[in-house]
Amino acid sequence: MMKNMVRIHWPWSKKKSPDSSFRKEKTATQDSLPRVAALAAAALRRTREIIGLTGSRLAGSQAARDAAKLLHDDLAKVCDSTASQTFLMNVGSYAGWIRWVPLLYIIALAFAWASLPMVSFILFLICAFYAINQFIFFRPVGEITHPKDEGINVHGVIEPSGQARRTIVFSGHHDSARLDTFSTGSKKEYMSTVFLPFACCMFLFAVVAVLTVGSLFGHSVVPWRSVPVLALLVIATVLWKMVLPLRTFFSEEASPGAGDNLVSSCIVIELARYFRARTRRGNPLVGTRLVFASFDGEEVGVRGSRAWFSRNKEQLIPPGTLGYHFNIDCPYRLQDVSFLSTDAHGTVHLSQQFATQCADVAQSIGYNVHSQKMPLLAGATDATEGARAGLSATTLMGVSWEDGRKSAPYHTPEDTPDAVEPEALEAVLAIAIKLVGTLDGLDGEDAMEASEDVTESSDEDAPLKFKRLTKR
């Protein structure tokens, strides 16, 4: 996804003890239903623990694979079946081309001075074709190297008591983004590192495009004999140093990736824990298969989810059944929770009907949630691949967009567990649980109605229970 331009400091964040560990916390027993607040707290503790064990997790790195193993081990405790699947990807192909833009600029400028603007024009078109497919459409077209980076996707499945008529895939991703050189949030740094270099490239492209059109229509263009053209090339030559910052666009460090998006994978595990407890309590889902997945490679062009849907769709969502993809990404703030109806910079249509249904479910339990489109240059989520696989897909997000950019700490060093509001996680869990009950209610008793009579325990050592999903 597009990088955040402003670092946000969260005044309401509370510091947790650094040695807090999910595995040390007392959890609910198998015959009780945990409270949503407890599930949200457990998700944050698990997030903190995994970051403490693995650190930042670049796509395809050993740290990302270690995180996947930890998530798989937790899923194995609460799911009927689990899988850990490796896949190969080109991590560097997604954004590595940015570092070569300065060299492209110099070569194109040289051909323009040599009265060969068509060569420059073709070079620009090739680069633009590659960049647009990678960054806008999220399709790995034109990669010249073989995949060599190993990623791991993990998932667990809870089967219904009857025949599965629908499958709901809940997903997050456990890889974190590489930091860029303007992640400190300085607008001046953003201008010098991103905007001006690409503006210079567009200027040179416009010059060579004009020269190419002239040569195609038989007009002999000799730059040093045309004062206007000579002036333009001189300006382009003077500007070449402004393109050089793209050589160091990315740093060697990665974001902690708590809110984007390890906490979502941990939420997925808590959802699995909830529905396992519900099943063992004697109230299983009737006709809904639940899949709980965590992908690698989202930060390098949604490659993990692409590999996962290609491999698992036919088995988990056979023909004749309904498929839903409830993706979770960047659930930072409760007030910003919404559902996407488009993805991949708005170029991929998600399910407006499903997004609206999710928003309606949220409103029915007191959350002011709506659906919205992904703005241009705002990036993509794994729901892109769910939609391409034919599922009714949407992504729940907890960020807002301002001037086309998300005002949240993702893709920065500030993306720690403290940047995530527990209330936002509670909302995600409550909405997801209510949605499952609503959909499975088509086959039998609504899950939420079945749990409303569960009372709080008076024994402080007894398992956690709840009356309602939310106090709102």
From TrEMBL:
InterPro entries according to UniProt: M28_fam, Peptidase_M28
Compositional bias of kind Acidic residues: 446-461
All copies of domain Peptidase M28, residue ranges: 254-435
Renumbered residue ranges of the record's region Disordered: 446-472
Pfam families, A to Z: Peptidase_M28
A GO molecular-function annotation: metalloexopeptidase activity
Domain of life: Bacteria
Keywords for this protein: Membrane, Transmembrane, Transmembrane helix
GO BP term, example: proteolysis
Record keyword Ribonucleoprotein present: no
Transmembrane segments: 97-114, 120-138, 194-218, 224-244
PANTHER family (UniProt xref): METALLOPEPTIDASE M28 FAMILY MEMBER, PEPTIDASE M28 DOMAIN-CONTAINING PROTEIN
Name of the protein in its database record: Peptidase M28 domain-containing protein
